[in-house]
Structures are given as structure tokens and as C-alpha cells.
Amino acid sequence: MELLQKLIHDSEEKLKKTVDSTVREFSEIRTGRASPAIVEGIMVECYDTHMPMKQVATISVPEPRLVTIQPWDQSNLQAIEKAILKSELGISPVNDGKVIRISIPSLTKERIEELKKILHKIAEQGRVSIRTVRRDAIAAIDKLESSKQITEDAKFKGHDDMQKLTEKYTKKIDEFLINKEKELV
Description:
The chain is of the alpha+beta class. The protein contains five helices and six strands.
């Protein structure tokens, strides 16, 4: 029975990581609201290496449609501006010599629909990953039963537990999707 519990526990850890990864991808989608998440992962070339924006500057949101980036070392200001321009965000930074300001424009209806499609695609990829974890766990449970390491009853309980976990984590992805879609309006 311990083998089965360990298998279920390990599978749940994989499910948590899948949801975390999906949520991280959701946060990179730019909505009509300003958020530090849209720029903090942009890689900036400074000190002869590439570093995430959040490691070279303070990122804040003073207004609903404004992100400000203040580098800890002013010599990195140009590199930060260049990294933002290179990113695929489609936003223009304004450099005043001390701080970079990014104004987030309102979204058009076409852009909202396009972003919703992207969000649904990300959510579906997350759901597919969850189903893959379930499939692998069920195959492992069946193998444990066929090698007489667990009983047939334990196998069915394991299948049931995996199905419940699958439903729980799929629901979480669906909830994050709904919340992210609300941000688009």
C-alpha cells in the first residue's frame, strides 16, 4: 500500500507543477491592466550575462495602466530599454534617464478575442499535461497490481484517487482561465 501512496503523492506533485506552469504562462499574457508579471521575466543583457528584469530593477505599478521600472544600477537603463523593445510585448518604453515607464494601451475587441484563443490554448495544454500524468500513474498502478505488489481493490482505489486528483487540478486550470479572461475585458 505504501507504494501506491507514494505513487499518488508523486503524481500530485507533478499535477501541482503543471498547474503552476500553466498559471505562469497565463501571467505572461498582457491584458489591459498593468502588471509587473508582463516584464519581470524579460531577459536583460548586463554585466556580461543575461538576467531576468526582476533581478536588475524594481518593477512597480503606480497606476492601473502604467508600469515603472527603476534599475538598481543606472548604467543598466539602456540595456533594460533595449530588452523591452526586443521582447514580443508590442509596447514602447519611455526612458526619462532615471526610470522607464511603460504605458499599457487599452485592448481592441479583435485583440481580446485573439488573447482569449491563446489563453484557451494554454489551458488546453495544461489539461493535456494533467491527463498525461493521470495516464502514466494509472499505468504504473496497473503494473503494481499485475506484479502482485498491490491488491485488485488497491488498484481500483488508486484509479479512483487519480481521477479525483485529475478533476481537482483540471478545475484549478479552468478557474485560472476564467479569471484571466475577466482581466481582458
